[in-house]
Amino acid sequence: MFVLYFSIVILVVCAYCYLIIYILNQWAAIESIPDNTKDGDPSLSGVSIIIPARNEAENIISCLKSILSNDGVENIKPQIIVVDDHSIDNTAQLVIDVESPYVQLLSLNIDGNNSNPINAYKKAAISLGLSQCKYDYVIQFDADTIVPKEYLKTIIKYKNENKAEFLAAPVKFYPCDNLLHHFQQLDILGMMAVTGAGIQSSKWYMANGANMSYRKNNVQFSPQDLASGDDVYTIQKVAEEKPESIFYIKDAKAVVTTAPVKSYGDLYQQRIRWATKNKMMPNLTMQMMMGVPFINALMMLAHIPMMIVFGMPAILLFLFHLMVKLMIDYIFLKEITTHFDAHESMRYFLPANLMHIVYIACIGALSFFIKDYKWKGRTVR
To answer: Which pLDDT tens digit goes with each residue over 144-190?
Structure first.
């Protein structure tokens, strides 16, 4: 029995290490945008921006100001569409009060009923925004993101140079003041590397809806869809037809920032929502990529009963497993946090990594059983 247990642990450790090394190699192979890219005047390439917003009075003005203060915004003249999703605060009025010819407000005036329930309000908001876009190319943000000053020029240059159908770009948390914040930072930056590695290798396709751009004819949602997954659905639709036109932007000028959630309860609801996207990932390679960390985390927790059964040999095997995981994760996250200038988060590496074991195992397991969750004051699935 111990031989079987030992063999499974070694197999899981090898699979996990191989996956991390593979992701690091693919991440390193992604080319950054050269500063001397010559692709014409960005002002000649119009762009629409869609920002779905529900109860975002605290964030929407900062988001809009960051876009409007972009370098060259007067030449680019972006169409910025904020879609108010039944906000019960003053989000809509704040947008109306913005004095800019580039900003417009749309209101999502739909409500579900028993015969025609609405589940995917965010997707409905995006669809409404898309219907009013005057440009073919669309940038999508969340309402709580902050955009760097050279973002628009960077996206347009890269889109023009590569004739991109879809651009996935990074998201980073700021500010980070405690263990919970830095845990989220390490987690999301790791996911940014996984996202970039998948696109670089053409093995799996992921994106983050807080920072992505695409041609508007690639998107079509139903209000009855899963509430989450607008990003995964869109990139996978493009991957089915034009995978060579999907790119990940590995450039500091394309990184948007957003605030981490403030409580463990909010983190749980957010990550359960993110986990529902797993149902939209039919790609076997992608399922294996996601399954290996989940199985590795389960195996880490399975050592506890094994130590009761087998005693010291199981304790030694657990310590071996833990040390290997800590070392490979440290190498991985050190590289990624260096790229994203998030060195301070590595000071929380040890407690965050231990938390991550429980987080991956629990959220992964619960995602198979929990269908409903809270999002923006609504119960959806």
So the answer is: 999 999 999 999 999 998 889 999 999 999 999 999 999 999 999 99
Q: Phi and psi for 41 in degrees, rounded to 5?
A: -75, 120
Distances 224 to 26, 34, 119, 124, 228 between C-alpha atoms, Å: 36, 42, 5, 9, 11
The tokens of 94 are what?
Answer: 């704040």
Return the residue matching tokens 């996978």.
Answer: 236
**Cβ-based neighbours of 136, under 8 Å, separated by 6 or more:** 46, 215, 216, 217
Concatenated DSSP letters of 268-328: HHHHHHHHGGGGG---HHHHHHHHHHHHHHHHHHHHHHHHHHH-HHHHHHHHHHHHHHHHH
Which of 265-269, 330-334, 368-372 is least confident?
A: 368-372
pLDDT (0 to 100) of residue 111: 67
Q: Are 91 and 54 a contacting pair, CB within 8 Å?
A: yes
Give the integer Cα–Cα distance in Å for 379 and 377. 7
**Cα–Cα dist 131/123, whole Å:** 12
Residues 129 and 51: their CA atoms lie apart, in Å, by 8
The owner of tokens 């917003």 is: 53
Distance, CA of 95 to CA of 206 (rounded, Å)? 31
Integer Cα distance of 211 and 142 in angstroms: 7
Helices (H) and strands (E) in the chain, counts: 12, 12
Give the Å distances, CA to CA, from 339 to 159, 188, 189, 238, 243: 22, 13, 10, 28, 26
Percent of all residues in the chain with a pLDDT value above 90, rounded to a whole number: 74
Tokens representing 254 are: 């394309």
More confident: 227 or 62: 62
Q: Helix or strand or coil: residue 258?
A: strand
How many Cα atoms are found within 13 Å in the side-chain-facing hemisphere of 201?
A: 21
Reduced to 3 states (helix: H, G, I; strand: E, B; else coil), residue 41 is coil
Structure confidence at residue 279 (pLDDT): 60
